[in-house]
Amino acid sequence: MSSALAMAGVSAVLQYYLTNLYTPLTALFGGTVKVSAKAPDMVQEAFTAGSPENQVNLFLHQVTHNVGWRNQDQPSVGPDGMTRLSNPPLALDLHYLLTAYGSEDWQAEALLGFALLMLHENPVLTRHDISHAIAQLPVNDPGNPLSTPLGAVGLADQVEMLKITPSTLGREEMAWLWTALKADYRPTFPFQVSVVLIERQNPASAALPVLLRKITVEPDLTPFPNIIAVIPPGEQPAAALGDVVTVTGGHLLNATGVVLNNSLRGIQQTLPPLSAATNDSLRFQPPNLNAPGELAAGIYDLSVQVPITTGPTSTNSLPFAIRPSIDTWAPGAPIASGNTTLTVPCSPFLRPGQEVFLIIGDQLVGANAFTTPTNSPSFTYPDLRPTGGLARARIRIDGIESRSVDRTTTPPSFTGPQVQVV
Question: What are the angstrom distances between the C-alpha of 57 and each of 91, 144, 295, 340?
Fold first, then answer.
């Protein structure tokens, strides 16, 4: 596969062979034919500022995805969003304009004719053509800083060879294009080069081959362990550290562990069931360690490990939320309004990078920056407004809020710490 210099390499190869094409034709055109690869407005400025000369310009005006290669490879990362599985190539089609500038009558047409015949007779750039042109760049253009780095572009080693095909641009498209280029129109031939495959060589994960495939038949329609619900206590949508959580499903007998995975924060932990699991349920308890390194508040993928006759397996995963708690925050006196900084004790410990907000009534503000795990974040309100009485205080971490509703009562009622701003 090619490196990120592949597009520059294609332009350099085409420029090299066009230069070689016109080298023996100096007598025919009355002087050297210059071959450039710049924007047409730059060429026009140089052409009109200096003495008139014959010139052919190669301009890459558009880059598009190649539809045939776009979805050929496997996904680049695993389900956790972090493990790199492969490096799919970036497949591109390059769209060029080949423009001729002549100093005398008919010369632009003649210049363009020689170039078109060369492209027509060489619709495929072979690996030898590419590697030969790339090897000559430091000799032919030593002043260009990319001449030497292009030697390692890998363009000749990609799976697909480079194919040159004419493109069709209508009068309106051509007029719009030259208007956008802010240059006067000159005889132009549009063509396409495909396909350029760019791929980074990032380290990836590759599984070992399967040693043995064993197929078993079970009379049950759902023979494998599975989970269907994760139920925090108190009819809450999320569990606090120390809560006993129930997991229901099927074929959970002999479950050995509950796996919690938070790919956003790089957390994975396996917790044992509190007691022997039944066939359709088990219970576990996220430990409240009250120390850095404990499970963070946020959303987790929860699955259960259950050994079966064919070996250990994991169930499907379901989302499970660990909520934060405000720990015994009682300011005592009312809080002053205006520019105010508050320190709020909370659990679990916060991890650097988490999104943390404090909400007093309906007034929300983000936590002040912190670089180490903490359970006492500070919050600065630039203009905290009076609440007119007691107001509920909540903390929100990675989208999960502390408990503010008691759902065990009928009807449900608000709960949680209250503060007053005066």
Answer: 25, 17, 62, 65
